């Protein structure tokens, strides 16, 4: 309870007037002679009690009326949550700004951040002297109270949107912590937000509520600088047919164009950055439009667009997809991409004699003949006899596949071990030829295989099949969207090897439906080994075929994808990420054969700033942590003919720019019982603040009560005394 | 110049000091008013003469009137107005009370008694006067002579209301004293226990007397005009009571009404005329009551 004119409370002393009158009137009655006293005496006692009651009642009402009047004139106000002292007492104010890219939405010629900044500067001027002020944004950086008001003003003026914005909830957490650190009694948190639903996720609400609930005396003000009905067209995340492509394969790019607002038609264009024809060696590239599509957009609907570019040259390629024209939010109108075109991966397939027959299914699946003819095959498979493996140089290959291997020498295992440790891949498809398990259970072999071979499990009923459960492994990426609908049971497995205790670091990637491992992974040095407990070489027409995986009972496409993804995983293609979201750490894999001491990173902003990077010695990679700019990053080294070029792209996650606003119910749900004030303009904010600080004025209510007290007094007095 | 009827108003009569004049003016006002009232017939009856009608004894003709008016009038016979009236005055101190410093209850009663005496003497009705406080103080035997009026008025003028009173005992004493059936007109504020008084009144009635009980109260006693906190003191017993007058008025009036109702009911049963009078009322009410009572006896 606070008073605007507390000294007027002294007026409460005036309640003494009716009390004194009451007492004085009682003490000094007028004296009359009255012979008919006998009529008085009979009822006097009863009447006296009644009168006393009436007098007391009237006295109370009069005293109440005076007290209420005095209280009303002192203009009290009731606060709803803790705020202490007068309105001019210093406060600990934490100003939280949402600086996500969404705040760049332009409306009435201002971005949301500009609107927030303007409001914040006004608010800053309103804060009482000696206040502690902190400016916190959702960008990286530790929150702290500013030195003085000038510093806070400067900080507000320099606020800018960032692509790698932290969640607003986490920032608010920091703000609450900061407010708590303050030793001032009154603490206020102002959150400048566009009220987008994505910035107030429901799952973080309980944590936020807990944090705020412990700070019951903090006033929380949400300043809504958003736009009620935003109009925006946005590009979704790009879906590339692959980030690393083999020569001859075309690049497919799919994305969604989503739209809020009235129906419209937008043109979507695909640009590739290409070196100028008369490249003078400075590496300057210009965007060249390669494709164009038109999206007809109904309100609040999305449309898919698809581009395909064929015959890209070997090397990195960068470009972007963009919506032509302008709209309220520019940052989600363009998505960048980087792909790398490489020659087909070289894979050595070693199989028992006749090697061609044993390896036929595998090579056909990795490099189908039709692809080979047109030069689109992702893999270049070289098939040799298993016996030749010992002598064959493994250096040109990215991976080795042992198809139904017969026992091989310990030296050969050791050679394979060295090959894998150097960062390559090995796949072992165990089958009938592994009958003599001693070779496989020897120490050299066991450094690579997932476990010791124990026995062959027979399942002649055909009720065992591959049953991948967790699809997070890269070799299962193709099935993530399909999940339940993959017909694994159409590819029965009749026999497989049971392995002993798994070696160190072994993971079961795919199991059979009976729970036994089917594909296991073991990291070895910088490389990896995949062991499959059933072969891919058996002729399905043979009566004792171990499985029908290559052909299935009609369809075998799941196995085709599985084998291809296994091969990509082994050659390290799935590790190569060329497209990142802002804030993620980018890792660029270098060619170990062309190791250079330093590289130059060119960020996308064209400011001419170049960063020098030194590769990590152990895994031939470059790590880039500052990915807060959207666009195509370029990494170069060497020069002239020995030019080495890499690149990656950084995009804003589509989720970040969803402008759908939080409804009031949802907002109330996020805050739960924690009191907060929502303001859209200065007047509301001012009203909210004075209510929060000084409280709600009770003047009107008190005057009303006083009128009621007087009215009741009047009616009762008339009734008591008027009846005569 | 006041009209004759205005003398029926206590505030007018108050201006006149001499009791005989008060009596005369009241009666004149009363008689004047009767001409325009349902009691018109009384005025003829109460004149001293009436027109000669065949059958009247010629020796009763008043020749003096004849000489003046050239018309025959006969004197009325004494036997026609043969009502012996006793005016019984309460001398209690409470009768001397007035709130507005105008006529006290006693003054009012004296005026009324004087007017009645005047009226009765002029009708040649014998009228006597009895006064009492705790017992009978003065007794004037009833006579119808003109001199009697002077005696009655001079006695009345001398009376002073002081001291305590015992209405019941005094009425008992009167009942024992009166031999012939008479009209007993009691002027009292009756501020005592009602039951003994009613008992004495019954006794009086039983003795063959007609009783008119003039219950005279002060205007203040009837209206309770006080406001705010007051202290009321009973003049005889000196008892005091403090109260909030405005809040008490309703209770007081209810109590008074209950008291009067007791008398009204009891008197009605014993055929006593109970006349409620207060000092703000015109005198004619009391006089009319007397006339009604007198007529009932014929």
Written description of the protein model:
The complex is a heterodimer of chains A (724) and B (298). In chain A, β25 and β26 form a beta hairpin. The relative contact order of chain A is 0.12. In chain A, α1 runs antiparallel to α2 (37-73), α2 (37-73) runs antiparallel to α15 and α3 runs antiparallel to α4. Helices cover 27% and strands 28% of the residues of chain A. Chain A is α/β, with parallel strands linked by helices and 724 residues long. Chain A is built from 15 helices and 36 strands. Chain A starts with a strand and ends with a helix. Chain B is α/β, with parallel strands linked by helices and 298 residues long. Chain B folds into two domains: 22-79, no CATH class; 82-296, Rossmann fold. In chain B, α2 packs across α5, α5 packs antiparallel against α6 and α8 packs parallel to α10. The two termini of chain B are 38 Å apart. Chain A binds chain B through residues 25-26, 28-44, 46-48, 50-51, 54-55, 720-721, 723-724, and chain B through 93-94, 97, 99, 189, 191, 217-218, 220-221, 224, 226, 228-237, 239, 241-244, 246-256, 259. β2 (30-33) of chain A pairs parallel with β8 of chain B.
Number of helices of chain B: 11
Strand order of the largest sheet of chain B: 5-4-3-6-7-10
The assembly state of the depicted protein chains is heterodimer
The CATH architecture of the largest domain in chain A is: 3-Layer(aba) Sandwich
The general outline of chain B is globular
Instruction: Work out the number of β strands of chain B.
Output: 10
- Helical content class of chain B: 40-55%
What's the CATH class of the largest domain in chain B, please? Alpha Beta
Largest sheet of chain B, in brief, is: 6 strands, mixed
Number of helices, counting only DSSP H or I runs of 4 residues or more of chain A = 15
